[in-house]
Write a structure and sequence with these properties.
Order of helices and strands: HEHHEHEHHHEEHH
Largest sheet: 3 strands, parallel
Mean pLDDT: 96
Number of domains: 1
Number of helices: 9
Structural class: mainly alpha
Bound molecules: zinc ion
Distance between the termini: 45 Å
Helix content: 40-55%
Number of strands: 5
Oligomer: single chain
CATH superfamily: Creatininase
Low-confidence stretches: none
CATH architecture: 3-Layer(aba) Sandwich
CATH topology: Rossmann fold
Strand content: 5-15%
Shape: globular
CATH class: Alpha Beta
Strand order of the largest sheet: 1-2-3
Radius of gyration: 19 Å
């Protein structure tokens, strides 16, 4: 159920008795020469929509600009800084609590949002408002991601190429797959990202000249469908698990005496 499609009298009924909501979040940032800037928010919205249809839980509009200053050198990348992102997400999540929601899954498709969503979840948990947790789609199916593709990458690689191939094939440029690989960083092991225990880079462009990581040339529509369905299934299971918990059991333990 997509919250913003409904009238308020409809939502008065629909939200009654519903305790769990789905909030998709992504980014608007460069994804190499072969994928659109919308990649992360399209993935988050696609998975959230599928899970909302399957479970009937409400999903909110998508937050499509995230914490992406590390991609700023590439034209078109938009970002907000961490404090504003955290406060914004916390503020609208508190609105959901006002409407009776007491648990939320942040359906996230951008690595740069992870720590900040967890911090927002921690704040809401600490004061007993609700139980909100961050879910990153590819971390729910690590074995399948490894099995399907020869050379993965953390950003604009085959796994994200597959998801957009499934969700918005018209926005994918297969004629640029080889250029994405050859002008980017196909093997993460080749980058000197750590020196004597210290991470030595700040921006994506420090490791990949065209912003792509990994080799997307082995993406097929069949693999793309498998990947999407597997991640959507994990999300549905997480939502059902969360909805079945007692609220009190999700809240912080009392101080030990
Ligand atoms: Zn991405």
């Amino acid at each position: 159920m997509y919250l913003a499609d409904h009238t308020w009298p409809e939502l008065g009924d629909r939200l009654e008795g519903s305790s769990t909501a789905i909030v998709p979040l992504g980014s608007t940032e460069q994804h190499g020469p072969h994928l659109p800037l919308a990649t992360d928010h399209l993935i988050a919205e696609g998975l959230a929509t599928a899970a909302a249809e399957e479970t009937g839980f409400p999903r909110t509009p998508t937050v499509d600009i995230g914490v992406s200053p590390h991609h700023r050198q590439f034209p078109g990348t938009l970002w907000v800084d961490p404090p504003e992102f955290r406060d914004y997400v916390e503020s609208f999540t508190r609105n959901l609590a006002y409407h009776g929601i007491d648990r939320v899954v942040y359906v996230n498709a951008h690595g740069g949002n992870v720590d900040h969503l967890r911090e927002v979840g921690r704040r809401l948990h600490e004061d007993g408002t609700m139980y909100a947790i961050e879910w990153m789609w590819d971390e729910s199916i690590p074995e399948l991601v490894d099995d399907l593709f020869e050379r993965n990458g953390p950003h604009a690689g085959p796994k994200e190429t597959a998801m957009i191939t499934h969700l918005a094939p018209d926005l994918v440029h297969p004629e640029e797959f080889e250029a994405a690989r050859d002008g980017g960083l196909p093997d993460m092991g080749d980058a000197e990202t750590m020196v004597h225990g210290a991470r030595t880079f700040y921006d994506a462009v420090d490791n990949s000249a065209n912003g792509a990581f990994g080799d997307p040339t082995d993406v097929t529509p069949e693999k793309a469908e498998r990947l999407f369905e597997a991640a959507a299934d994990q999300l549905v299971r997480l939502l059902e698990w969360l909805d079945a918990r007692e609220f009190e059991a999700l809240m912080p333990e009392p101080r030990v005496v």
